[in-house]
Design a protein that fits this description.
The chain is built from 15 helices and 15 strands. By secondary structure, the chain is α/β, with parallel strands linked by helices. Strand 6 and strand 7 form a beta hairpin. The chain starts with 28 loop residues before the first strand and ends with a strand. The N terminus and C terminus are likely disordered.
């Protein structure tokens, strides 16, 4: 009779759990605070976002993980306080509110240092997280793919690694020494920091493997090769709704911040008949944590690989211009300068949600976009303006194509079908033995014909091999 397996002993030095997964339920009573710094120096650094709009966004972020926002307010302060960010009077007033309303969580829509977070938790008697922590929580719940989950965990650990000093009370304990050596032994904080470091190393190795797989997929697409059109934009701008409209897909599209996290790709047929790959990416947001930009770089590299970038904007939002700046800042971090788009990677603005505009505003926006080369006013919900967007994409992708003349034997039906499938045939004239085809083809496809043994007849004429 085989011996029974010994139960595995519990780990005596668990990693600190910084998240809300054990406490965040639909019933979690939450306080949301937006610290509006009125000093001119700080206001310039933070941008010109309206405080009310920023508070609404913070409420939306909290709602994205089903937190019950009981109270939300804007707190005006001249400058941040080193100890608590907020003034002492505000801290005391909110402490009374937390106790009176029996609040379990406070979200401060700004950056908190580890010491400020710890002091606010002491003063209010509840869990406190800042904007970065909240966004990390949302990403942690939304990640579905293996790569997405690894990236979120890596970002979360890197964020918490700098907060081990005073963020957790149990880290102040020490374990005794062993045997006769005496001494305080390894402190709890050292153990947790070591465990986090080991886990980070393992995550990076796993992510490296996943990234290699993604690179192989990119290489495979380049061998096909289909042009890539990437949708980018502020979160909840309507990217997924537009993606579904264009590709007849069923990607989750909700009126919810960060409804889409993992990138999705589908084939799309343009009016010219050419096929492209449309990529729906994660939405951007103001003050996007740098931990996430770094961790999700492998995913965001899909944008770098794109032939055309479509910047989807919520034209009906009061802060649409500020949101545009936020997206451009993230693109700049990826090495894409929105102010200097080149012909190789044009950026098209899709002014979405015109169905929510007043008639006069809608008419004005449609008129302005009709005169602009790279701006399209549309509604991803109703489909209005989508046809023009496809035409604009066709035009940009056609710029990268070469106009060539091919003499193909009529007996070579496979090559003729390939040219019709891969390019845009502008004209055709048949002789007794050959088809003289004038077509627009991508440089890679022209090179493929040459590699097959084609011979140049004149500057615009190639002969496809049998």
């Amino acid at each position: 009779m085989p011996a029974a397996k010994r139960p595995r002993p519990p780990r005596t030095t668990p990693l600190p759990n910084p998240g809300l997964h054990d406490t965040a339920t639909p019933a979690t009573r939450t306080l949301v605070i937006y610290p509006h710094i009125t000093s001119r120096d700080y206001a310039t650094a933070r941008g010109d976002r309206m405080a009310a709009s920023r508070l609404d966004e913070a409420r939306g972020l909290a709602a994205a993980i089903a937190l019950n926002v009981v109270h939300a307010e804007i707190v005006n302060l001249q400058r941040p306080r080193p100890a608590t960010l907020l003034g002492s009077g505000t801290v005391e007033r909110l402490a009374a509110l937390v106790k009176e309303q029996n609040l379990e969580l406070a979200v401060v829509d700004g950056h908190l240092s580890p010491g400020q977070q710890r002091n606010l938790e002491k003063g209010w008697g509840c869990k406190v997280i800042d904007r970065t922590g909240l966004i990390l929580e949302i990403f942690g719940e939304r990640a579905k793919t293996r790569e997405g989950m690894l990236q979120v965990e890596l970002a979360h650990l890197n964020y918490q690694k700098s907060r081990l000093v005073r963020s957790w009370t149990h880290l102040e304990r020490q374990r005794g020494g062993f045997g006769f050596m005496g001494g305080p032994g390894e402190t709890q904080i050292e153990i947790d920091r070591r465990l986090i470091g080991e886990r980070v190393i393992r995550l990076k190795k796993e992510l490296h493997s996943v990234t290699r797989t993604r690179q192989l997929h990119r290489s495979a697409r380049k061998r096909i090769p289909y042009p890539i059109v990437a949708l980018v934009g502020y979160t909840n701008a309507g990217k997924s709704t537009l993606f579904n409209m264009l590709t007849s897909s069923d990607v989750v599209a909700k009126d919810l911040l960060f409804a889409t996290l993992d990138p999705t790709m589908r084939q799309l047929k343009l009016p010219s008949g050419r096929t492209v790959i449309l990529s729906d990416t994660v939405g951007f947001v103001s003050d996007l944590p740098h931990e996430l930009v770094a961790a999700f770089r492998a995913t965001l590299e899909e944008v770098l690989e794109a032939d055309v970038i479509v910047h989807v904007r919520d034209a009906a939002h009061d802060e649409t211009e500020a949101q545009k700046k936020d997206v451009e800042e993230v693109l700049a971090q990826l090495g894409i300068d929105p102010d200097k788009p080149d012909d190789a990677k044009p950026i098209v603005e899709a002014l979405n949600k015109i169905d929510l505009l007043a008639d006069d505003d809608k008419t004005r926006l449609l008129g302005q976009s009709s005169r602009a080369e790279d701006r399209v006013a549309l509604s991803a919900l109703t489909g209005e303006g989508v046809a023009r967007l496809l035409a604009v994409l066709d035009k940009h992708l056609a710029k990268a194509r070469d106009t060539i003349d091919l003499a193909v034997p009529l007996s070579d039906g496979a090559t003729l079908a390939w040219i019709y499938r891969r390019g845009e045939v502008l004209g055709r004239r048949d002789t007794e033995t050959e088809a003289i085809v004038t077509a627009l083809l991508d440089p890679a496809d022209v090179a493929r014909l040459e590699q097959q043994g084609t011979a140049r007849i004149n500057p615009r004429l190639f002969v496809a091999a049998e």
